Amino acid sequence: xxxxxxxxxxxxxxxxxxxxxxxxxxxxxxxxxxxxxxxxxxxxxxxxxxxxxxxxxxxxxxxxxxxxxxxxxxxxxxxxxxxxxxxxxxxxxxxxxxxxxxxxxxxx
Length: 108
Description:
By secondary structure, the protein is an alpha+beta fold. Helices cover 31% and strands 41% of the residues.
């Protein structure tokens, strides 16, 4: 096994420090109505940027009839991003979002 360089050691230490402060949060985002473009909704949610936020996987989940909701995950640095602030930012997309809920929160 090759020996780790100083750069590798620093990167590993930074990664471990981040993981100690990181949380994985999943949101359920309900569209404004059944005519909401869900691809555009996801694009607008992912356009929300702040230090300590990394968007993850997303999926559309059927709700009723032809309506689907967006479930999207994010990795957040708990020292820089609160779930409440992020939830408010998503809710602020009033032209496409009806409601937002945190569906799970996992400390990494």
